[in-house]
Amino acid sequence: MNKKLIALGVAAVLTAPLAAQAGVEVYGQARASIDLMNNNTTVAGDEDSAITLSSNYSRLGFKGDEDLGNGLTALWQIEQDFDIDTGETFTHSRDTFIGLGGGFGTVLAGKLSTPYRAATTALDPFHDTAGDHNAIIGSLNGSGLYSWNDENRASNAIAYMSPNMSGFSASVAYILASAAPGGDDNLPMGSDDSEEDAYSLAGNYSNGPIFVTAGYESWSALGVGGDDASAWKIGGSYTLMEATTLGAIWESLDAGGSNGERDAWSLSAKHKMGDNTLMAAYSMADEAGGVTDSGASQFSIGVSRNLSAATEVYALYSTVANDDFGNYGLDNRSGAVAGEDMSAFSFGINHKFSSK
């Protein structure tokens, strides 16, 4: 009898925390691809091609919410990258926050994708693959600065997202003092750090086949030579007969200094045929201000197939063609060589998972 009581007591202790956390969702994406990479290097002793296994922003997250009554909800999320190829976990932090939501919208505080960064993500059919348009969009001659592309997020951020209002929505974020990557917004703080803040905003309209977005972001005293840095972009897409989606983006960046400006644009198309999707995209970056022949273009083409609601496989080819002094490479792939083209044949699998 005593043994049964002890067993019941132990079971109660072990299951109580699980019951209390029943609303917690464990979710993520396991992503991997085999890539045949080529960077056309002419450096003696360096290989110009390699077969690599890439993780493509695999991620693991925990999130939950609590109904506070009167239409108010507490929200939280913890999300981290993990590397399929090396087995390393929690390699980079992703959107991690706590906040409140209700009829007024949502307020979040933490490390966040800024409104500017998130505005055009849905317009890239090759998002989080070797063909990602962030090779060009959000990049300035190969340098992904601030939160302009998908490699960066803003720490020490406070954001507000409006509710959907007949298809319209808006968001704004403020990044506190010392907003530079790795910056500390705590005292003691120098006067220079106190001036290094940032803000980001975006507006969207979505109605049936139409999607339109615009974003603007400004980083105070964090540009080249202590100048301000800023970026703006507009984009949109239109879906024909629920099968073919055409998209476009225009972006202008100014990282400060005499050579810090450049414009870029991107066009994309995807066509669904049952479980298969055909994809193509072309992007081009103009010369950076004052640097002749520093532009580049990217072309990507591919096909994906849904094996289930959670799993897809794909094949793609992507290439970046640099001008003589261009230094753009494929997103999240090292090894770009200034003035040389870089390309990849990629064969991948993506699996989304969730405890709910």
Structure write-up:
By secondary structure, the protein is mainly beta. The protein is built from three helices and 18 strands. The chain has helices at residues 2-20, 115-118, 191-195, and strands spanning 25-38, 49-54, 59-69, 72-82, 89-93, 96-102, 105-112, 154-161, 168-175, 198-207, 210-219, 229-240, 244-254, 261-273, 276-285, 296-306, 311-322, 342-354. The chain has a 16-stranded antiparallel β-barrel. β12 (229-240) and β13 form a beta hairpin. The longest helix is centred in the N-terminal third of the chain and has 19 residues, at 2-20. The radius of gyration is 23 Å and the shape is globular. The relative contact order is 0.16. Residues 1-22 have low confidence and may be disordered.
Number of strands: 18
Order of helices and strands: HEEEEEEEHEEHEEEEEEEEE
Query: Mean pLDDT score, rounded?
Result: 87
- Shape type: globular
Low-pLDDT stretches:
1-22
> Span from first to last CA?
38 Å
Tally of contiguous helical segments = 3
Give the class from helix and strand content and strand pairing.
mainly beta
Strand proportion: over 45%
Return Rg in Å.
23 Å
**What proportion of the residues is helical, as a percent range?**
under 10%
Throw out a few tags for this protein.
disordered N terminus, 8% helix, 18 strands, 16-stranded antiparallel barrel, mainly beta, 356 residues
What's the helix and strand layout?
Blueprint: H1 2-20, E1 25-38, E2 49-54, E3 59-69, E4 72-82, E5 89-93, E6 96-102, E7 105-112, H2 115-118, E8 154-161, E9 168-175, H3 191-195, E10 198-207, E11 210-219, E12 229-240, E13 244-254, E14 261-273, E15 276-285, E16 296-306, E17 311-322, E18 342-354
Antiparallel strand pairs: 1-2, 1-3, 1-18, 3-4, 4-5, 4-6, 6-7, 7-8, 8-9, 9-10, 10-11, 11-12, 12-13, 13-14, 14-15, 15-16, 16-17, 17-18
